Amino acid sequence: MPRYHLVAYERYARAEEDRIQKKALADHMASVRTHIEGLSGKDYSSLKGLRSLDFVLMFMPIEAAFVAAFREDMTLYAYAFEKKS
C-alpha cells in the first residue's frame, strides 16, 4: 500500500475533534477499498508465462491503520477475499 494511501489514516490519528476523526476514518476506508479494487483488477494469474496464485496479498505497513480499517468495517475482510486481494 503506497504511502499516499495512508494520508487519511494519518489525519484520523492526529484528529482532535470527533467530526474530523470520523471524516478521516471514512476517507481511510474509501482508500483501502479503492486499493483492494485496484489489486483485484491486476489479475496476475492470467499473465502468460507466469505461474501465479489467483489472489494477491495487500500489505499495510502500519498495523494500527489495518486495525482501524477492519474495526470500522468488519465486512472488509470478506470484501477483500471476494475480490481475491
Largest sheet at a glance?
Answer: none
What is the helix fraction of residues, given as a range?
A: 55-70%
Give the termini distance in whole angstroms: 12 Å
Mean pLDDT: 86
Number of strands: 0
| SSE-based structural type | mainly alpha
**What is the total number of structural domains?**
1
Query: How do the helices and strands follow one another from N- to C-terminus?
Result: HHHH
Radius of gyration: 14 Å
Number of helices: 4
- Strand portion, in percent? under 5%
Low-confidence stretches: none
Which key phrases capture this entry?
4 helices, elongated, mainly alpha, 85 residues
Task: Please provide a brief summary of the model.
With 85 residues, this protein is mainly alpha-helical.
If you had to describe this structure to a student in words, what would you say it looks like?
The chain has 85 residues and is mainly α. It has one domain. 56% of the residues lie in helices and 0% in strands. The protein is built from four helices and no strands. It has helices at residues 7-14, 18-40, 63-72, 76-82. The longest helix has 23 residues, at 18-40. It is elongated. The N and C termini lie close together (12 Å). The mean pLDDT is 86.
